[in-house]
Amino acid sequence: MTSETHVLSGDDLLAQLAALDNPHRLRIVAALASGGRNYVSQLARDLGISRPLLHLHLQKLEAAGLVSSQLELSQDGKALNYFAVTDFKLELSPALIATAAQTLSTPE
């Protein structure tokens, strides 16, 4: 294994920071990090939030590359969407921000 450092683009950095800028999403990442992958219904029960709300938060986290999903069939034929935390590491520093800022898309 090499010690290469992946440099995030400015847009990727903003997406990750925006995805983590919510208490529900932080709790989702924490639950998946400590408990391993889980399917939506069980995760919603564990966190005490509705499945539709959980789906919205999971979509934002997945779009930012912080979680991944895999659809599987249970033994009784039900489709279960499992989510897991991706292997990410986010360390902020002024130098990282300066580098990332150079790659930002044109502001809207």
From TrEMBL:
Superkingdom of origin: Bacteria
Domain HTH arsR-type: 15-99
A single MF term (Gene Ontology): DNA-binding transcription factor activity
SUPFAM superfamilies given in the database record: Winged helix' DNA-binding domain
Stored CDD domains: HTH_ARSR
InterPro entries: ArsR-like_HTH (IPR011991), HTH_ArsR_DNA-bd_dom (IPR001845), WH-like_DNA-bd_sf (IPR036388), WH_DNA-bd_sf (IPR036390)
PANTHER family, alphabetized: TRANSCRIPTIONAL REGULATORY PROTEIN
Protein name: Helix-turn-helix protein domain protein
Source organism: Amantichitinum ursilacus
Phylogenetic lineage: Bacteria, Pseudomonadati, Pseudomonadota, Betaproteobacteria, Neisseriales
